[in-house]
Structure formats: structure tokens, C-alpha cells
Amino acid sequence: MKNQYEKDDHFPEEQVRTAIQLGVAKAVVEKEQGNQAKKRNKIRTSIYVLCSIAAAFIILLGISYQSPVVASNLSKIPIIGSVFGDSDLIGLQQAQEKGLTNQIGETKTINGVSVTLDEVLYDKNNITIGLKMESEEALDDAYFSSGIDFTIDGRVPSSGSGSYGEEILSPTSRTAIETISVTDEMPNEFDLGLLVQGENGEKWYFSTPVNQANDIETIPVQHEETVEGIELNVTEFAYGASGASISFNSVEDAKLVDEGRDRASWIEFKMEDQDGNEIKSHSGGVTGERVKEDMIYTSNKQFDPLDSDVTEVTITPYLALPTDGGGVEFDEDENEEEIEFKQDARQPVEFNSFKVKITP
């Protein structure tokens, strides 16, 4: 069965939801005042053609041909289907099919623009949110480019990262998926608060209880190595219907970050099964914390789900170093100085591979 919230007649729903919404707004303001920026993926603008059953299409076509009014209203039919089920991510498709998602379906409308919180998947420390957007008028491609701000039990996690992507279905409708990786210790269930912001300052607030998917298998990993000043510690491997993941932390001298020569934040992993078949990686955000003279990074890298016949995986860490970049910095007098990108400042290293046996 799909995870759903059963309402209690004595539960003060409106008061609790209002409190959570205020918590979202407060947390977002505090985060903005602290100048914390969340990196986001570029909005994907692939156009999908939605098809229906041939018979239904013929019926609708006949009605719209006879009635211009009905034809006009057809363009306003809400998006049908599941955001996760219609995505191109195998893990989300499988999680939706197996009933592991929290189905919400709550819609809020501001100035003719409706946002629907369709479903949420809470898998390990990763939270994936599916949204639907409908408008009475055409929207700019970047209308929701601010993405989503969130709270867990009314608070913004101390560390985490996220990515946001959209699929534009028509000038007035689209879907969006936000993926949040949280490195804090997470409960099995919590109240998720969301704030979606529009181009014209609109703010859509949502709050909903979320339960963790119950099919996750975790395997402790004790892979530690130090290579050219980079300390790597892989702590856990997890897998389930929604995908596989590798949890790890890495440490290096903080001075390297100041000098633009940091490498420990660029660690990725290649994964192959016992037959040499590569399992597709979806990367994953990285959070960093400076502790005395060290910079400590924490991350959770995501992969496609494992096939049922996989008995062992070989994992190879590597550095996915940037090929371009640069930026600006400000001195004490707030004078701007351009930072030149130096590709040869970071040299690749070779880590050792390790194996993880999959529990039958």
C-alpha cells in the first residue's frame, strides 16, 4: 500500500499546518539573511508530447470539433499521471509502482497559477519531491527557477544539498522534481514543510507528514584510505527499489581550499556488478565544514536500482575534477578581484577499488 496520512477528527490540522508554514517562512528568511545559496541544476526544458488512448482521443477530438467552448476548456485539463511514474528516472518509476512514495495531491492556487504537491519519496537520507504546475496563462521558462525551500519538523537542516529540474509539457503546464540530500541524522518520519516561489513573488506553502520507504537494505562499509593528502572513508552502502547509494566522508587540508587546489570535494564513484555491467550514477550533493585546519566533506552518491541478479558490486572512487570555472572575491575594502581558473592546480589521484556483497 502507498504511504498515506490518515486524518484524525481530533487532530488540530489547521493549527499545526499553519505553524509549520510559519516555520518554513521563518527558516527561509533566516537562510536568506545568512547568504546561504543552494546550488541547483539547470532547468531542463524538454518538451514532451502527452498521448492518450486512441478511443478517448477520438471522442475528445469529435467533441472539440463540435464545440469551440469545450475545445478551449480541454487545454485547461490538469496534468494526468504521476510525476515520478512519468519521469525518466528508473528508481522513481519503481518506487512509485511499488507504492513506496507518499502520495499527497494537494493543490494551491495564487493569481491563476496552481501548484500541486503530487508525491514525496523519502529514501534513506534523500527526499525527492514531485510537483505539478498549471497556469491560466503562458509561463516563462524560468518562472519557478528559485526551486523549493524546505524544513524538517519546522527547522532547516544544518547541512544538505539539492537539485531542481523541470519538464515543460506546454506553455501553461509543467512538472518538477526536487531532490534533497540531507546529511543530518534523520528520523523515520517527520513533517516536511515546503515553500515554492514564483517569478512574481508568489509563495506557495505546503506541509505534510512523510514516512521513510520500508524496503531499504543497508550494508556497513569500512573502506578507508589516504591518497596524496586526501582521507577517504566510505561508511555505508544502501539499496532498494528506488536506487542504490554510497555514503562517505573525505578530509583534506583546508589551506588547499583557500588556494583553489582542493580535491576532496570532487570525489565520485564508478559502480559495476559481478559481470562488469556499469550501474548508472546520478551523483549527489556535497556539504563541507571547516574544522580547525581541516576541511571535512560529507556526501551520499546516488545510483540506479540494482537488478535482482546482482550478487556483488565493485566500487571505484575517482576525482571528477572541473575543466573550467573561475569567480570573483572581495578584499576588506570590498574591491572585486577576479579569480582565474587554473586547471593544473588540481591533479587526479588513483584510489583503490573495493567490493560489496549484496545480501540475497
CATH homologous superfamily label of the largest domain? bacillus anthracis domain
Just name the CATH architecture of the largest domain. Answer: Sandwich
How many beta-strand runs? Answer: 20
- Rg, rounded, reads 23 Å
Mean pLDDT level: 78
Query: Strand percentage, roughly?
Result: 35-45%
Main β sheet profile: 6 strands, antiparallel
Instruction: Based on Cα principal axes, name the global outline.
Output: globular
What's the SSE pattern?
Answer: HHHHEEEEEEEEEEEHEEEEEEEEE
Which fold name is given in CATH as the topology of the largest domain?
Immunoglobulin-like
Blueprint (SSEs and pairs):
Blueprint: H1 13-33, H2 54-66, H3 68-74, H4 90-97, E1 102-110, E2 113-123, E3 126-135, E4 148-152, E5 160-170, E6 173-182, E7 189-197, E8 203-211, E9 217-227, E10 230-240, E11 243-253, H5 254-258, E12 267-273, E13 278-279, E14 281-283, E15 286-291, E16 294-303, E17 312-319, E18 327-330, E19 336-339, E20 354-357
List keywords for this structure.
five-stranded antiparallel β-sheet; alpha+beta; 2 domains; six-stranded antiparallel β-sheet; Immunoglobulin-like; 15% helix; globular; 360 residues; disordered N terminus; 20 strands; 5 helices
